[in-house]
Amino acid sequence: MRHRSLLILTTAVTAGALTLSACGSRDDDSEGGGGGDGTTVVIGLDAPLTGDLSALGIGIQNSAELAVKTANENEEVKGVTFELEPLDDVAQAQQGQQNATKLVGNEDVMGVVGPLNSDVGQSMQKVFADADMVQVSPANTNPSLTQGEEWQDGEKTRPFDTYFRVSTTDAIQGPYAAQYLFNEQKLKKVFVIDDKKTYGAGLAGTFADEFENLGGKVVGTDHVNPDDKDFAAIATKVKNSGADFVYYGGEYPAGAPLAAQVKKAGAKIPTVGGDALFSAEYVALAKENAEGDMASSVGAPLTELDTAKEFIKNYDAAGYEDAYEAYGGYSYDSTWAIIQAVKAVVDENDGELPGDADEARKAITEAMNDVSFEGVTGKVGFDEFGDTTNKQLSLYQVKDGEHVPLTSGEFEG
Predict the structure, then answer these.
(1) Closest CA to 281 of 306, 319, 308, 255
(2) Superfamily of domain 25-168+303-382
């Protein structure tokens, strides 16, 4: 499988380093050269590290490891050594909830990066909230996680003040794609399909609403199971509908064969989706049938950001076998946000974390509200709902076997 072993990250504490109280595990430097105690702060990570979505999950893990390694090498927080504890949720909500419980049970864990999937995120939120432990997702995009179930009716209520994310939401990702396809690509008829999951159904819904508001026509709708691979019947429906394109709310393991079978059925039209289709794995699965397909994603293309150059260089230098994929930069920034929250608490507490784990976790969560820095993906900060203040989005199209940028900007609502 794609799972890589966790890097062993240790940093010797210098003689002048501050000695911290013992809410984390304490490390005695018995080999000389340091002469002092330090505190180990564990950052948990939850992502699909095996299974169909492991390409995205491994990119998340590797990027978080890189952030931890960088913080330790630079002594970002004096006297603190950071470690990463990655857990595999296999993209399943039940496993994610179990992982959350395990991470909460480790008193050295002061915050968690992840998960990838919005439905998994929903299953974890209350576990972390009950423990006052901060969670920062690099990839969850369903609006209800931060704004409540009634967000579409204008009743925005933050369900859990421990939950934050650095990716923008489907409330604007779907409409952003709809505007581009209707106004710029001049596509007027769409067949909308979703996988019935929290992310996919929500994204498809926001896309369809905006597309119809613009004057476009939804000529058909259907649902698939995310584990299905045979879409012959639905491909025939798409062909007979006269649609200009398919919009798929879901992930690449089903999205890629769906797109390929639509084309094979005779509908030579593109399939368009959200950030869960923005992966090299999508092209690998759909092969030549991926050509012309499009995907939106959060943020601007990393390769075009000056802020991402150092990350890309360091990631390559680290020798990871797997790509950082769609969420690598966001995973790095999520991890760095937790590191900065820890730093803020230490600075405000005379160079120490609170001695009680519960107190430390609560202080770090509160500090996250004020975290702000120039990250890999641009300016990192959070609004009153815990959502990112960075509303940048991009659209990509598969050309010659690779996703290439089409356009990037902010949604004009």
Answers:
(1) 255
(2) Response regulator (3.40.50.2300)
Q: Which tokens belong to 32?
A: 């000389």
- 222 or 18, which is more confident? 222
Instruction: Give the Cα separation of 377 and 333 in Å (integer).
Output: 7
Q: Where exactly are the structural domains of the chain?
A: 25-168+303-382, 170-298+393-410
- Number of Cβ within a 10 Å radius of residue 265: 18
- Side chain identity at residue 226, one-letter code: P
Query: Lowest-pLDDT range, 17-26, 30-39, 60-69, 222-231?
Result: 17-26
Task: Count the neighbouring beta carbons within 10 Å of the beta carbon of residue 92.
Answer: 17
Is residue 17's pLDDT more than 50? Answer: no
Phi first, then psi: give them for residue 52, nearest 5 degrees: -65, -30
Q: Return the CATH number of 170-298+393-410, one of 3.60.40.10, 1.20.1250.20, 3.40.50.2300, 3.40.50.300.
A: 3.40.50.2300
Percentage of residues of the chain with pLDDT beyond 70: 91
DSSP 15: T
Compute the C-alpha angle 7/11/16, nearest 5°. Answer: 170
Asked if the domains 25-168+303-382 and 170-298+393-410 are classified in one and the same CATH topology, the answer is yes
End-to-end CA distance of the chain: 42
pTM above 0.70? yes
Note the pLDDT tens digit of each residue in 285-330.
999 999 999 999 999 999 999 999 999 999 999 999 999 999 999 9
What's the CA gap between 59 and 139, in Å, rounded?
Answer: 12
Q: Band of the pLDDT at 229, cuts 50, 70, 90? A: very high
Q: Give the chain's radius of gyration (CA, Å).
A: 22
Indicate the pairing of strand 25-28 with strand 37-47. antiparallel
Q: What mean pLDDT comes out for the span 273-296?
A: 97
Gap between the Cα atoms of 372 and 253, Å rounded: 35
pLDDT tens-place string over residues 125-182: 999 999 999 999 999 999 999 999 999 888 999 999 999 999 999 999 999 999 999 9
Using CA atoms, how far residue 144 sits from 81, 120, 155, 200, in Å, is: 35, 13, 11, 13
Give the pairing of strands 134-137 and 109-113.
parallel
Q: How many CA atoms lie within 13 A of 339 on its CB side?
A: 28
